[in-house]
Amino acid sequence: MGYRRLILVSAFALMLFQIALLRELRYQVSAYYTLAPFLFSAVVVFIGLGSLLSRLVRRTDLIAKATIGVLPSLMLAAYGATILIARMTVDRTQEMAYAFQATDVDPRLEHLDAITLPFLYVALGGYGIVFITQGLLFAALFREGRKSGHLEGFYALDLLASGLGALAGGVIAFHLSPLQTAVAAAAGLLAAAVLFRRTLGLGPKSLGASALLTVILAGGLLGPDLAHAEEAPEIRGMKALYSTWSPYRRIDVLVDKDVLAVLTDSLLFHVYRKGESDAWNPISIGLGQLPPDRRGEVLVIGAGTGSDLRILRRMYGDAVHVTAVELDPGFIETTRAVPWLRDSMEGADVVVQEGRNFLETTDRDFDAIIFAYIDPQSAISRIGVPDANFLYTVEGLKAAWAKVRPGGLLMVTRVFLVNQQEDFLRRLFATLDAAGLGDASKVYRLRRSLRYGYYGEISVLQVYAWKDQPPHEVNNVELTPLSPVFGGRPTTDAFPFSLETGVWFGILVDYVKEKPAFLWGAALSLLLLAVRLLTSRAHSVFFFLGLGSFLVESVVIFQSFLLLGSPALSAALAVGFLLLWNAVGSWGAARFARWKHFGWLCLAAILLHGFTAPLLSHLLLSHPPVWRVVGLGLHLALPGIPIGALFPQALMKYRERPVAGLFAIDLVGCALAPVVFWMAMSVWGLPFAVVLGALAYLMAIL
């Protein structure tokens, strides 16, 4: 009973800590070049290393006593070290300079140089030790569970607690910063150490020392000096006027005389200059095309910190009623807290909701709908796939077009890469045609461009679509009309990429080619992995179980984004429900093992869920949120239960094999899954990612 309670508390706390750490790392390390697929993979690799270390200590009681005794303080020490190492090794000044300055070397590779080493430093010198300890503890507990005949129950409790941790983490993200969440996780583990002190054999001296050290570290990390100096540093001589954590990102407002800059996860988001003219702004140009009697109701999607709303108010005052939809509540809080921005949203109806979800659920119509400067590395991309955005898809444009009143205007503003203009235009025009907007729209490019990090030169495209009237010519010196370019692939919900998807992976490949050590290291690792899989059926099974489970989880997360109007909350609920159903499957693993064709049933369930989830989401969008949550949760039983049963079944099947090695190779598959998923999505789309997850399980059950 003691080990079971220990699994519950430790799995819950470590899931909270992992969520907090990944949020922090996106800010500290992963800026211009998103490392999101690798951040999670690195965590899983360390858990695998810890699993292998468990083979050196055969006594589970000693491992449990040592790990639970040190984990609370170790978590906070490692978290603090992660922040300090990142601040010491990531050159923020140079990072900002990349946005505006040309250099003689390839800025893409130079920037990767600037973040790859810090990425390794913070992993090895910071958070890695926590997850090594987690792997050591859980491999020992699973070993004990198999020995005692309670493996299914042990694994089910791990999944149950992890699922509850994911649900709690999704809610906590709206209220606590990552650092505060990490402290809460450490406090939970410390409470567990106190409650289970007799079971673990923790003496009062060791327990008191652990508690004292944890309290000291928590106080130091939460202290205002460290929080300000290390989490909100001065950048390029500009003071941090305001800083906050939203569920999606870190937002910093910097000010220097007449310039105010807004940064998101250290990435330059917007610059305000006092007295700057709005004459060239695309919003000003676009609304100038509407006759006065068609400007009454305007919807702005992607309100950000309110720059477009300020322009609308300057141009038309009270003659325009604006509804401003913004996904990130952090931007709304920032706008209200900073004097420069405070009046930007005055008079507007502000709705905190994902834009596509708003379009699908509102019963209102508008004279003009504006897709503002929605970040190419959107909040959705930060969770899952770079550049995924459901507003620019065929389905998204149709949803917006349905809400435009006759005689009204749909205006889409899109940042794009100048060196990919032709490919981008092919995809854009194909999407407009598929959405039924080809004959109603005109496309223009802003003459100006800007150097922006590893992306290179960026500029802006404007799409103007008039409803029930011929498209107008927009005559403005700042805009260049563009002729249709054909032969592109439409952007759809199943392939939600409007930018060229090879950018992220292509830059990574170029970088690896420039680094022979990385290239040879990757080649050697893959060779050793292939040899292990080809020479051991047991290891092959567990590798594909790990790969398949996280491919399915990635698909589940991706398919949930539109459901609730908050991708962060939707993803947390999706992962939480999936893990809870995994726990149910683990508890029934022995019974399911008696089913003759259970493996094939699992395969069918994965495919059925993957291809019916989009249809279910579409059907549920018109229902109240509670029914959407219930529908999401029940539908996830399809893949969740069979997937949860397969891991303990395999551990019992290969009972002669050490748990540590099987658990470690399973985690190798988990670590590779995010990158495999991104590559599959960016090249072929969601259906292929679903099939890949099923194929991984096919390899495991054959």
The largest β sheet comes out as: 9 strands, mixed
Average predicted local confidence, pLDDT? 84
Radius of gyration: 26 Å
User: What best-fitting shape do the alpha-carbon axes yield?
Assistant: globular
Can you give the helix content as a percent range? Answer: 55-70%
Low-confidence stretches: 94-104, 225-232, 379-384
Number of strands: 13
Count the helices. How many? 27
> β content, as a range?
5-15%
Oligomerization state: single chain
The first-to-last residue Cα distance is 36 Å
SSE class: alpha/beta
| Total domain modules | 3
Any descriptors?
Rossmann fold; 61% helix; 3 domains; alpha/beta; 13 strands; single chain; Growth Hormone, Chain: A; 4-stranded antiparallel β-sheet; globular; 702 residues
Helices and strands in order:
Layout: H1 2-28, H2 36-53, H3 60-89, H4 92-98, H5 107-148, H6 151-172, H7 178-195, H8 197-200, H9 204-222, H10 224-231, E1 239-245, E2 250-256, E3 259-264, E4 267-273, H11 282-287, E5 297-301, H12 307-316, E6 321-326, H13 329-337, E7 349-352, H14 355-361, E8 366-371, H15 379-383, H16 394-401, E9 404-417, H17 421-434, E10 441-446, E11 450-451, E12 457-466, E13 479-482, H18 502-514, H19 516-535, H20 537-560, H21 567-587, H22 589-593, H23 598-620, H24 625-635, H25 637-653, H26 659-683, H27 686-701
Parallel strand pairs: 5-6, 5-8, 6-7, 8-9
Antiparallel strand pairs: 1-2, 2-3, 3-4, 9-12, 10-12, 10-13, 11-12
